[in-house]
Amino acid sequence: MPTYTIIEASKEAAGQLTQPITVINRAINIHSIVKKHSHQWSQFIYASQGILAVTSTTARYIVPPQQGVWITPETDHEVTALSNVELTSFYFRNSLLASLPNQCGVLEVNSFLKVLILEAKYIARDYQWHKSDGRLLRLIRDRIFEAKVITLQLPYPRDKRLLVMLNTLQREPNNRHSLDEWSRIVGASTRSLSRLFKQQTGLTYTQWRQRLMIQIAITQLSLGQSVGNVSLNLGYESPSAFIHMFKSNTGVTPSSYTNPR
């Protein structure tokens, strides 16, 4: 397991916003964690290069360059760089939130929104809200509001027995234990484990495990591993079986993450 370096959140995240929308650019080295924090405003986190994991108290989000994470006000979260990352964050005053998502989640960053975000990286801190830079940021706000929601977040259970399963599967993604086998390992009946998974994550065990596999696959694919290697790492009998699972759950093939738009 790598050793992670804990770093502080940006000063802007801890201070007061001086603009209706504030843009922060930051380079984060691989295996760095922006320690858990929250702020009074919403944040949209986007990595133009590299892979992020954003973890709240209830879920984990994996963020390749095709997607961004929306964080609502007063939400504790930490950001982990799974590779070297070029990060752009947008902080929104609460007065601008009427049309924006009211819960955390992953949003698709299409080609047009990506171009807008890359252009916004060069906006000066003291930009004029009612001039061209302000119009660009308002357009980004509108495009975030219209962005497609990607339902690939991994909800976290609270029960200690489920957390044992979660931690094991994260370390051993090719682990194929059934709920019957887990029941003997963690000391709970199969029925209890099935009920707890649904109650605490909103997903069945099978659905939850597939969501975890997809997050791991997106990370490995975006870091340059082949579809065949990822399939093997996750314990699939063949690349075609892995591709079928991936496309059934995401709507796209794994190669979409090896060739970002």
Q: What does it look like?
A:
- The protein has helices spanning 11-14, 111-120, 132-146, 160-171, 179-186, 190-201, 205-222, 227-233, 239-250, 255-258; strands at 5-7, 21-28, 32-37, 42-49, 52-56, 59-63, 67-71, 77-81, 85-92, 105-108, 149-150, 154-155.
- With 261 residues, the chain is an alpha+beta fold.
- The protein has a six-stranded mixed β-sheet. A six-stranded antiparallel β-sheet has the order 2-9-4-7-10-11, covered by helices on one side.
- Helix 2 packs antiparallel against helix 3 (132-146) and helix 8 (227-233) packs across helix 9 (239-250).
- The radius of gyration is 19 Å and the shape is globular.
- The mean pLDDT is 90.
Keywords:
2 domains, Arc Repressor Mutant, subunit A, 12 strands, alpha+beta, 261 residues, 6-stranded mixed sheet
Write the layout of secondary structure elements.
Layout: E1 5-7, H1 11-14, E2 21-28, E3 32-37, E4 42-49, E5 52-56, E6 59-63, E7 67-71, E8 77-81, E9 85-92, E10 105-108, H2 111-120, H3 132-146, E11 149-150, E12 154-155, H4 160-171, H5 179-186, H6 190-201, H7 205-222, H8 227-233, H9 239-250, H10 255-258
Parallel strand pairs: 1-3
Antiparallel strand pairs: 2-9, 3-8, 4-7, 4-9, 5-6, 5-8, 6-12, 7-10, 10-11
